[in-house]
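Revision sheet: structure tokens.
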Amino acid sequence: MRFSVIVPVYNFESYIEKCIESILRQICRDFELIVVDDGSKDKTPEICDKYAARDERVKVIHKENKGVVNSRKTGIFAAKGDYIVYVDADDWVEPGLLEELSEVLDRYPDIDIVIYDALKIMPSGNSMTESTAPEGYYDRYRMENEIFPDLIQDRKKGLGDGKLEPLPWNKAYRRKHLMQHYCLDERITVSEDSAFCYECILAAKDIYILKKTLYNYNRFNPDSAMIKYNPKLMQSSAYEVDYVCERLKEYEAVRMQLPNHVAARIVYSIGHEVRNNDIKTAAENIRRSLKSTGILKHLNVRNMIYLRPMTLVYIIALKLHLYAAAVRITKRQLGINR
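Predicted:
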């Protein structure tokens, strides 16, 4: 079997049918669909079981709620396909996704990763999720020269934006490769993507970048982990940062980029607080979170020189406990007037 499509799902009864239907309509038929139900409390389990009863390609795994990292791992260990494709339960894919991937795999039968473009479906208007690297085959030499220098932090882009986005769902992974590099820390609930995507890419012997839009990323879902307020976001970000810094410390090519990754996670978490709270509440939450997580320990006098000037000023403000000032800066940057 060529593909195992894995869909982790938790309480997405409004979206899961569209997701599954898009996968079952694939032109390429050489795949299995593994839906991992992470202890859903709504009608998601019944909907998934309905599809499993209709189509022998669909396998549903029901388990207790342990988070998306555990769900992805559960799917990997149940998979039989040579390649793993992840689809989030509130997204959908184009009918030609697996066919396009198969054409690449026919040319490069043992390639570690194939990366493709996605369309972000957003309330403010659609936009593309795409790599800035040209389409084509990249062996190890080409990756080290053209991808790795800007993998995590592209010098031509904004804070936290690398040449290849660390997204689980716009890639097909050779299963044996993914088995060696999947995320091990189940405490990570947000941004678990980068906890394994960067490592997978850095450890790959080769990749192929396919400049075709084959995935639809739904940002309309108000229950998405990327939208819904999460008071523990900084803690999850700290787990992710600890994991990434530990796992990638041996990769010299990205060592100088890691401080920007840490700073980006901190800035994102602060932005999340600012969007959902007034200045006083946000400042207090940030103070408490930074103290309890210790995430700032990854930024010191030796590596802060790699930060961009404005980011450096921002991080220094946090280290000086100027939390309200950081909140006000973030409000201005986000255009929040309240």
